[in-house]
Amino acid sequence: MTATGPQLCSIAWAGRPVEIEHQWIETGPSDGPLLVFLHEGLGSVSMWRDFPARLCERLGWQGLVYSRPGYGQSTPRPLDQSLTPDFLERQAVEVLPALLLALGVDGHQRPLWLLGHSDGGSIGLIHAARFADNVAGLVVLAPHIMVEDISVTSIARAREAYLNTDLRERLARHHCDPDAAFWGWNDVWLSPAFRDWSIETMLPAITCPVLAVQGQDDEYGTLQQVFGIAAAAPQTAVEVFASCGHSPHKDQTERLLDLVATFTGERSTNHANI
């Protein structure tokens, strides 16, 4: 596996310069497909562990892993600035395009694929809907297209765990400011203003192939999330993993590697025909 060490890239966002932690995985040609990894609500470059490198090596593709502002070693979120209910949309249509531009990535020049987990899956869906001609394919793991009671209940439990267990210490291994990372995510998800959030009306604009994977035992969402994607974007292939929770890439790594390799292999032989 060939991966560079994490680096920082500066972008302008929200009226200020922001440093974005990112890591390149050099396991494919520079003009071949690029797979961009979009982390979960409390994720970061390091929290993916070796999954991106293993998948990119399997595919023979380059990979790009990054930490969103406020996560990992990227510029922390100021504690006096709360996330707004459109925070996922802003990541998809402002931050991700700015990062790709800063790094010289152009989906018109090479096939650009996105792989997102949880909140990252939602960001991938929004980006693919908004920039349909720039995305060759999309893989989403346990994505959110709407807020469900099960999501709110589990996120409320996470708040209790952060206050009463060693969760803060564990997150501190991956984030330079674990409080900013945790409370930004937790507060907005539990806010009344976010309860009606939905991206369902955006989904029909997605034209690329979509693979949507969810665990049967996902504690953060029902299967209506992935089946809702397929209803709005019929080109979506849905896979439900039995005996699997919210993180298919951790719970059933080998099965997911096989599935993504098959899915992308069948759809990326000729980018012009995607």
TrEMBL record:
Q: Which domain of life is it from?
A: Bacteria
Question: Which molecular-function annotations from GO does this UniProt entry contain?
Answer: hydrolase activity
Where would I find the AB hydrolase-1 domain in this sequence? 35-258
Q: Does the keyword Metal-binding apply?
A: no
Coiled-coil spans in chain: none
**InterPro entries in the record:** AB_hydrolase_1, AB_hydrolase_fold
Pfam families linked to this entry: Abhydrolase_6
The alphabetized UniProt keywords are: Hydrolase
Q: Keyword Hydrolase: yes or no?
A: yes
Protein known as: Alpha/beta fold hydrolase
Taxonomic source organism: Hydrogenophaga defluvii
